[in-house]
Amino acid sequence: MRVIAYNILDQEKVFLAKANAKVHDLTLISNGLNFSTIHFAAGKEAVLVSERDILDKVMLFELFKLGVKSIITRSKTTDHIDLDYAGELKMHVANVPFDQSMESIAKQTIQNLTQWMVGGCAGDACQCRMDCANKQKLG
What we know:
- The structure is a single chain.
- With 139 residues, this protein is α/β, with parallel strands linked by helices.
- The chain has a single domain (2-138), classed as 3-Layer(aba) Sandwich (Rossmann fold).
- It is 35% helix and 14% strand.
- It is built from 5 helices and 5 strands.
- Helix 1 packs across helix 4 (102-117).
- The chain is globular, with a radius of gyration of 14 Å.
- InterPro entries: D-isomer_2_OHA_DH_cat_dom, D-LDH-like.
């Protein structure tokens, strides 16, 4: 998948690159996701965000217009994402609900991307608010 990761800390870069193992076309930037940086998401299928990135209706719609179909937050919380509106836009959303070490977050993030890439579901990390055949298969 073509992916842009926002709000990347220097120490996260190594873990994400190692977990990715060149499977996904992954661009890492330290800037947060906002209206000055959203253009970096053009042509990407997914965005990786942190809890510092606010994805309200306006931001989600702008990402949707750029072609983004999937969002992964590198946090347990999803309070910074309007999950209902993402569902209306048929955008997949996942978090990282397990161990919160940087290495584990990186592995969970890449695992979610890979599951989506092969047509699967993010399982316990799935935060989608839409009907999805893949999610129903898990139930």
